[in-house]
Design brief:
The chain has 358 residues and is of the alpha/beta class. The chain has 13 helices and 10 strands. The protein is globular.
């Protein structure tokens, strides 16, 4: 898309250089050879735009990128998809001279774009539940897949990520322990819990694991973009809390492909969808702790702040009062209340959104 945009702006093709390094053609290439190859393609008088896909396949690729960036007039776009491109290490590789683009699975809007191109869009409210159920991996929306086939594709993504980016990279020996931790988190999306709760659960299955190991696993899973950690914020005390965090998944299909689809989990996964959408829009997100309850999300972006409640359905005045009262406890001058009321009736999903800004 960036290359297409450059062409629209009048950049000639010879100034746009693209390589994919997962090809066998580059299997034994060294960083020095990469430098010489790229150098030969650069313009002496004009800026060149380099696109290096799966560049982590070249050992010490960062030395080449840093040298090219220093020695020539270039814009360099680097992509990668495995453990050698972890965000925690890119800062070391590129010495701070980069801008990182965080890529998520498809948003609901993007999902609809795929559906229009490769399938047939149904009622928009039914599409929402399909989106929650199928998730946002592009590969499963390139055609109409049966649910089992779609989950098979997602499990392949899940298994390869767990093996290459977590197990292999961190030399984890007790893989069954890691999988049990993951299944606990998957089954408790949107709930606060501690490492002790996980270790107690595993001990109940006659296995042993200490809290430090649980914390270590969770950190590795975050680094591999399987999980997102969401901290709690004390609204009254104005401070972040260090315990009882929540975890959300990189995509709802991870849970369903591993544990199976369950109608009872839709509310939690709806919360997961909202959380990811806030991240896509550049918000920093945390959970709000109030004296008498909890606000699902407090989302902050510069001077913009949102207080958000998500509920699958409101069946009683008591439930409605509870959802409103948690927001009213904030006492802030700016309150945005998003109430998504989903009712299932004969397979149809109805969505009603209410926004109140005092």
């Amino acid at each position: 898309m960036i290359m297409d945009e450059l062409r629209k702006r009048g950049i000639r093709d010879e100034r746009i250089i693209s390589y994919r390094f997962d090809s066998m053609e580059y299997e034994d290439m060294t960083a020095k050879q990469l430098y010489e190859m790229l150098k030969s393609k650069l313009s002496d008088t004009e800026k060149t735009y380099l696109f290096l896909d799966e560049v982590q396949e070249i050992t010490s690729w960062e030395k080449t990128v840093n040298s090219i960036n220093t020695d020539f007039d270039v814009d360099i776009y680097v992509t990668g998809s495995n453990s050698r491109m972890m965000s925690s290490e890119i800062a070391t590789y590129l010495t701070g001279r980069y801008v990182s683009f965080r890529i998520f699975t498809l948003s609901f809007e993007e999902y609809l774009t795929f559906k229009k191109r490769y399938g047939e869009v149904e009622d928009i409210h039914k599409e929402l539940i399909n989106y929650i159920r199928y998730g946002g991996f592009p590969a499963i929306h390139l055609q109409e897949y049966p649910l089992d086939n779609a989950y098979t594709i997602v499990r392949d993504i899940y298994n390869s990520t767990i093996f290459s980016d977590v197990v292999k990279r961190n030399q984890i020996r007790k893989v069954d322990q890691l999988e049990r931790v993951l299944k606990f988190v998957f089954d408790n999306v949107g709930k606060t819990f501690s490492a002790k709760a996980i270790s107690d659960y595993i001990k109940s299955e006659h296995r042993t694991i200490d809290n430090e190991t649980v914390y270590n696993y969770l950190e590795k899973l975050e680094s591999a973009y399987i999980l997102h950690r969401c901290s709690r914020y004390d609204v009254q005390g104005k401070e972040l809390l260090k315990t009882q965090e929540k975890f959300y998944l990189a995509d709802s299909s991870f849970k369903y492909s591993v544990l199976g689809y369950n109608d009872q989990s839709v509310a939690a996964m709806l919360e997961n969808v909202v959380y990811l959408e806030l991240l896509r829009r550049g918000y920093e997100v945390c959970i709000g702790k109030t004296p008498n309850g909890e606000i699902d999300f407090i989302a902050t972006r510069q001077n913009d702040k949102l207080y958000i409640q998500i509920t699958k359905e409101i069946k009683s005045e008591k439930t409605e009062k509870r959802e409103y009262d948690r927001l009213l406890e904030v006492g802030d001058n700016l309150i945005s209340y998003y109430q998504t009321n989903i009712r299932c009736f004969q397979g149809t999903i109805y969505v009603k959104t209410l926004v109140i800004v005092p």
